[in-house]
Amino acid sequence: MNIDELIRDAEEQAKDAFSRVDRIARVCSERVLQAFLKNRVSARHFAPSEGYGYDDAGRDTLDAVFADALGAEDALVRPQIANGTHAIFLALSGTLEPNDTILSLTGSPYDTLESAIGLNGDVPNTLKRFGIRFLSVPFKNDRIDLDTAGEILKSDKTVKMIYLQRSRGYAWRNAVSIAEIKRAIDHVRSLRSDLIVFVDNCYGEFTEEVEPTAVGADLIAGSLIKNCGGGIAPTGGYVAGRKDLVEAVSYRQTVPGCGKEIGSYAGSYRLFYQGLFLAPHTVAQCLKSAVLFSALFERLGYRTLPKVDDARSDIIQSVLFDTKEELIAFMRAVQAAAPVDGFVVPEPWEMPGYADPVIMAAGAFVQGATTELSADAPIRAPYIGYLQGALTYEHAVLAAKSVVNALITAH
Question: 237-241 and 196-200: which strand pairing?
């Protein structure tokens, strides 16, 4: 098998998908640039702050730029937010009170969030311990089941929040599109106008021309070491949406009564600004890489999701393997193509917050940054590998060669 020819054939098949990705990147890049220009970003905004952080121009302007770039009234962008799960938990715990109910229209959330909500395990400070319930409606024929959701909303008046997870987590399905999010929001709004609609936006930013806030979402959250950080933000997360809700979340992130007014950062803000500026382009590189792997693995006889020509609403590419050994070989090959720790051999391990052993390939400049080429999977049947990222498409091509060689050898 000539791997170079295989890749060229896959790229030929992917031409239309690549063009679609480029169009989206241009639209999103223009919106991000306008956000920078509107808020008059200058070098002074990169300077660190100290102490309480009162009147921190870099922090406050970063909030404003993110809000405009994401089509929101306001945003809370903080290096102190540890990851996407933390950002989501802040959004939920900051806007809900005891005896409120969350209704998820996208089934069960990520494994790590299940612990934070209180759906598994018994750790302190979960939403369950705060007296907040979580109900979920499974997908029906790969779409949001609005009929069942409507029945629950009519019978359970404690529901205060509609929860939508845009990405797939460890499920064999496509991400939820903006069009599907709009369909769901329009439906629940027709039944209850008082609901808060929250969207877990992790992995989804800049994969379509608009964000969920443009179609009626009240609040979104995500990680800066995913899409919005452009591959260079060193840490952090964000919550964006309605101004009153963002303010409520800020009271949870710092302290009630102070909120966004406090919180200094002793490092430079430059990488957060620059990461956002680069984000639409970086996401386009991730999407093209995912499309390439989809086309390539289809040619090798594997089932992939999304397919090459499917519309994409996150940066993740799923590949279904026949055996655990194949899955592990795939992960090790991705790791072997990493610029950092390429010599490391990944092993499944009991990772905090996950129900099954997890294997991860993550040789990244920023630990855990999923806009850098990485992959992960729970070790459970069906054996699905989840690939994401690539700061450059060229790196994805080189990694693809490594992976194909490894799988051929494994057979």
Answer: unpaired
